[in-house]
Structures are given as C-alpha cells and as structure tokens.
Amino acid sequence: MSDAERTPDGRHVVVGGRRWRASDPELPESVRQRLVDLLMEARRGVASALRAGDAEAEERARANVRHAKEGLGERGTPWWEMPVEERRHRWERALRDLGAE
Predict the structure, then answer these.
(1) Phi and psi dihedrals of 88, rounded to 5?
(2) Sorting pLDDT into bands at 50, 70 and 90, what band is 2?
(3) Which residue in 25, 27, 43, 88 has the most C-beta neighbors within 10 A?
(4) At the top level of its lineage, which domain of life is listed (predicted)?
C-alpha cells in the first residue's frame, strides 16, 4: 500500500475510495515487512482452508490474520491512542503469536 493515498492526519490510507487504518508508523521496516509477509501467508491459508472445506484450518488461519493485523496496528486499539512502548509490545506479541519471534 505504499502508493496508496493517505488521509491528512496520516492515520488512514484510501484504496478504491475506501478508508483503511494505516500501519503503525513506528514499526521498524524489518518488523513491518515480516508482519506483512505473515499476513499474506495467513490470507493464503484462509483461502486454502476454504477450498478444502477445513473449518479448523480456516479458524487457525483467520486467527493468524488477526494477529498480523493487530501487530501492524491495523486492528485493535488505534496506534495513535497508545504510547509507543505499548505499540512495541503489541508488535512483539504478534510476532510471538505467529511463531516468528
């Protein structure tokens, strides 16, 4: 989403006319990229589980999507409402939950 338009306050990106919460700008680039990679892997897992009709695999994959999105700051408490230290703990927890520590 690097070429997506940002709202004036920088808190959201606009894609196709729809507003989405932007990733936490305090994320180190290496952490952000790792979380994005894990998010894409989890989304592929959801699609694969849906094709296979595997409800348990789908549930696990959706949980991984949630962990990655929370780590990126795109879900949960908005990053702009949290101190930087709490945000760091959140992305570290997401990486742990995703087994990518």
Answers:
(1) -60, -45
(2) low
(3) 27
(4) Bacteria
Report residue 30: phi and psi, to 5°: -65, -40
- Provide the whole-model pTM: 0.90
Residue 95: alpha-carbon gap to chain centroid: 11
* Helices and strands counted in the chain (H then E): 3, 3
Three-class SS state of 88: helix
- Three-class SS state of 82: coil
Helix (H) or strand (E) holding 91: helix 84-97
Task: Answer whether 66's CB lies under 8 Å from 42's CB.
Answer: no
At residue 86, what is the residue type?
Answer: E
The C-alpha angle 26, 27, 33, rounded to 5 degrees, equals: 150
